[in-house]
Q: What sequence folds into this?
């Protein structure tokens, strides 16, 4: 059963903006599986509504995914809070902003604000997968993940980055409080990213600012300060507070459609233990 799910995931990962449609033989060839197996998997996904079979016998993503995405976005309260602060920051800076989260071994863009200055970096679409190792957003997210997660991400890529170099890089991100990416993903573009924390102090997202390299150097200091401040504001609105982060966990509870933070239930006689802040 697990193998079937993994194959279905591999099929869905083939779909991109540039390749929105696939045929049975193309999927079989790309994934190295028998044509009969590809046909069964594609037909099954189409029956579930995850894929849509065209009159030409090819497959596109189905509207079921759109419906599920709306459920996900509607039940991610921190995204709405972040979007409000991003809109304010975007008006102040004029540069392109995006919010990204770690989903398995991938970094996915979940919100964005286009820049309005001349030559602003083009904003990728929501759902775009970013590089976990070379993007500023990915480095921020990985810097606050356990070793096994970082190892899994590194093992799943073909990036020549070694473990020792990656660890040193992520330690710098933790120490500095932000990540910096200079023209690695797109020639002529540079980015800064900082962490967004939830009520329990966990880094749940990274907010990034992408800027044309020709004005990045002159604006870097100002952009970094404004970006870190915006992340702090988002985190505080989500219930995070450094002085209180060790005084017990908080949980989101939904009552009559409204999300609110409440102290987590504690076992009788349990001793309060300060939360470790070690990255």
A:
């Amino acid at each position: 059963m697990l193998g079937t799910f993994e194959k279905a995931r591999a099929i869905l990962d083939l779909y991109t903006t540039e390749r929105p449609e696939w045929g049975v033989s193309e999927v079989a060839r790309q994934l190295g599986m028998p044509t009969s197996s590809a046909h069964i998997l594609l037909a099954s996904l189409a029956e579930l509504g995850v894929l849509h079979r065209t009159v030409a016998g090819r497959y596109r993503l189905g509207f079921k995914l759109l419906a599920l995405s709306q459920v996900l976005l509607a039940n991610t309260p921190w995204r709405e809070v972040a979007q409000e602060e991003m809109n304010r920051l975007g008006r102040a800076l004029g540069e392109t902003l995006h919010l990204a989260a770690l989903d398995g071994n991938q970094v996915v863009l979940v919100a964005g604000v286009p820049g309005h200055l001349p030559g602003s970096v083009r904003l990728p679409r929501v759902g775009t997968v970013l590089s976990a190792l070379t993007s500023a957003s990915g480095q921020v997210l990985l810097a606050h993940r356990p070793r096994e997660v970082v190892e899994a991400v590194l093992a799943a890529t073909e990036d020549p980055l070694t473990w020792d170099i990656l660890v040193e890089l992520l330690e710098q991100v933790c120490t500095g409080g932000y990540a910096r990416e200079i023209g690695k993903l797109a020639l002529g573009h540079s980015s800064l990213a900082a962490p967004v924390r939830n009520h329990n102090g966990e880094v749940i997202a990274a907010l990034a600012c992408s800027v044309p390299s020709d004005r990045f150097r002159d604006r870097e200091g100002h952009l970094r300060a404004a970006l870190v401040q915006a992340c702090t504001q988002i985190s505080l609105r989500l219930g995070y507070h450094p002085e209180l982060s060790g005084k017990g966990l908080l949980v989101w509870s939904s009552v009559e459609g409204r999300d609110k933070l409440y102290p987590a239930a504690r076992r009788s006689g349990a001793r309060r233990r300060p939360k470790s802040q070690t990255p």
Observations:
- The two ends are 36 Å apart (CA to CA).
- Residues 213-237 form the longest helix (25 residues).
